[in-house]
Automatic annotation (TrEMBL):
GO terms for molecular function: heme binding; iron ion binding; monooxygenase activity; oxidoreductase activity, acting on paired donors, with incorporation or reduction of molecular oxygen. Belongs to the cytochrome P450 family. GO terms for biological process: reproductive structure development. Keywords: Heme, Iron, Membrane, Metal-binding, Monooxygenase, Oxidoreductase, Transmembrane, Transmembrane helix. Heme binds at residue 470. This is Cytochrome P450 78A3. The lineage of its organism: Eukaryota, Viridiplantae, Streptophyta, Embryophyta, Tracheophyta. The keyword Lipid metabolism does not apply.
Length: 533
């Protein structure tokens, strides 16, 4: 809705111009619009913040001092901050504006705040005011507003989280899927072991994590080394959804572009949705056709719900699809970073090997129960998550549902809030030697040995924190740690050439991946080829 002040300005000018031609009126309107755009833009944080302040300006309004931040450009604001490696650009802008605790910027008409400080991050993520997610057109088109990640904070979202926590992410369920993770680890080891030439690890890791999620969610088991049509189709659907959700959609922030769909995002979403619907509906129908009552996977769980928890078919599709979607790439991306660090730091790799030899021994494969007896490997995993959090901006932002105060600044309802976890985990005021890869900081008597990565300490919260913390965090970390242990137990990981060169450049999609996929050579460590624990 336009402001009274703006409308008044424009109509007053137009009424004065009756005597003029249509072209002159158009010029006057354009000039008025241009002038207003400049006025809005002049405000700290740029046009969206200026517009808000201008609209709300009244003698009674007490909005306090403005949040510092870059103005960007008139109308579009700081869209360029979100291009390419947004976490780097935002961190640099916050440093330049002296606004690491809290910075304001505009993405077109969207007001954004971002923090690079753990205390402010805690205030934001743990506040019920920020328990909602901002609307993204692609998320809505892809039905994610009916799944956990983008559902509005309320009864429906709470019900979904409760169901998922009880039947997919609870310790009993994670334990029950141990055998399937072990089977996939053995398949991966067999596939990697076949390579006599250097090879890329990413494709196999993505297949493995997709296969693991497919087992838990759909009860489907795909052989990693066989080309299964259904698995291939699903991979294509996940990749397309991943790309769509990871793309900054200009229409989300500049509503006047909405009708034009300049990046063809709407078109691609409407092509994808029927394919996803067909795929998931087919699997649901197969489950319904079963005669047994036994609950074997998450589809069975959703089908068994009764009363107020019962989901419609379309909601079920959204929930199932999201689980596959979220659980697949995050795990594969993190394992690739860990293996890259192992190649780059052979001394650290060799300490993990020593630990594996001591705890597991040469004669058998790793079991998940071995991980509890290991201290150094979990420290290595933590250190990699610290330097390469898969969601450097915590993947999905939060939305203020009411006016609130953050770090002493007034933040109006409807503001998008982000946490730059990447900047926090590299801040020398928060971490000693933050850019150095030092797993020892989390090991033994290390300064941060006891830190939890699950959201209680915002110095390292790669899974977010508060009500919308990642529900798959334990499953995700269990899978990552166990598969890394298995792969390191089986092989020594070496660089492509003898130079120990690994390119750690990043590319930010929905998760932050290695820009150049890791290419390695492996040498078998165990002579005994027992792939079972
Ligand atoms: C290494 C693995 C993973 C990482 C780093 C990760 C990270 C994250 C982050 C940062 C968030 C946003 C949290 C917030 O706003 O505070 C999130 C949300 C979410 N994650 Fe994960 N995740 C991982 C694995 C998984 C897995 C395995 C699943 C499911 C199978 C999953 C499902 C979800 C869902 C459904 C949400 C939305 C929660 C909500 O809005 O209520 N994640 N994840």
């Amino acid at each position: 809705m336009g402001t009274h002040v703006e409308s008044f300005w424009i109509f007053a000018l137009v009424s004065k111009c009756e005597a003029f031609s249509l072209a002159s009126i158009a010029w006057v309107v354009f000039f008025a619009w241009f002038l207003m755009s400049l006025i809005f833009w002049a405000y700290p944080g740029g046009p969206a913040w200026g517009k808000y302040r201008w609209r709300k300006a009244s003698p009674s309004a007490s909005m306090g001092k403005p949040i510092p931040g870059p103005r960007g450009f008139p109308v579009v604001g700081s869209m360029k901050l979100m291009a390419s490696l947004a976490h780097h650009r935002i961190a640099a802008a916050a440093e330049a504006c002296g606004a690491k605790r809290l910075m304001a910027f505009s993405l077109g008409e969207t007001r954004v705040i971002v923090t690079c400080n753990p205390d402010v991050a805690k205030d934001i993520l743990n506040s019920s005011v920020f328990a909602d997610r901002p609307v993204k057109e692609s998320a809505y088109s892809l039905m994610f507003n009916r799944a956990i990640g983008f559902a509005a904070y309320g009864v429906y979202w709470r019900t979904l989280r409760r169901i998922a926590a009880a039947h997919l992410f609870c310790p009993k369920q994670i334990k029950a899927s141990e055998a399937q993770r072990a089977e996939i680890a053995a398949e991966m080891a067999a596939m990697f072991g076949e390579n006599t030439e250097p090879f890329r690890v990413r494709d196999v890791l993505k297949r493995a994590s997709l296969s693991s999620m497919m087992c838990s969610v759909f009860g489907r088991k795909y052989q990693l080394d066989s080309s299964n049509n259904e698995a291939h189709e699903l991979r294509t659907l996940v990749d397309e959804g991943y790309d769509l959700l990871g793309t900054l959609n200009w229409s989300d922030h500049l509503p006047f572009l909405g009708d034009f769909d300049p990046q063809k995002i709407r078109m691609r979403c409407s092509n994808l949705v029927p394919k996803v619907n067909r795929f998931v509906t087919r699997i649901i129908a197969e489950h319904r056709a079963r005669t047994t009552e036994k609950i074997r996977d998450f589809v069975d769980v959703l089908l068994s719900l009764q009363g107020p928890d019962k989901l419609s078919d379309s909601d079920m599709i959204a929930v199932l699809w999201e689980m596959i979607f979220r659980g697949t790439d995050t795990v594969a991306v993190l394992i690739e970073w860990i293996l890259a660090r192992m190649v780059l730091h052979p001394d650290v790799q060799s300490r993990v090997h020593d630990e594996l030899d001591r705890v597991v021994g040469e004669s058998r494969a790793v079991a998940e129960s071995d991980i509890t007896a290991m201290e150094y490997l979990p420290a290595v995993v933590k250190e990699v998550i610290r330097l390469h959090p898969p969601g450097p901006l915590l993947s999905w932002a939060r939305l203020a549902t009411t006016d609130t105060t953050v770090d002493g600044y007034h933040v109006p309802a409807g503001t998008t809030a982000m946490v730059n976890m990447w900047a926090i985990t590299r801040d020398p005021k928060v971490w000693l030697d933050p850019l150095e890869f030092k797993p020892d900081r989390f090991f033994g008597m290390g300064a941060d040995a006891d830190i939890s990565v699950f959201g209680s300490d915002l110095r390292l919260a790669p899974f977010g924190s508060g009500r919308r913390v990642c529900p798959g965090k334990t499953l995700g970390l269990t899978t990552v740690t166990f598969w890394v242990a298995s792969l390191l137990h089986e092989f020594e990981w070496k660089p492509l050439d003898g130079n120990n060169n690994v390119d750690l450049s990043e590319v930010l999609k929905l998760s932050c991946e290695m820009e150049k996929p890791l290419t390695v050579q492996v040498h078998r460590r165990r002579t005994t080829l027992s792939l079972s624990p």
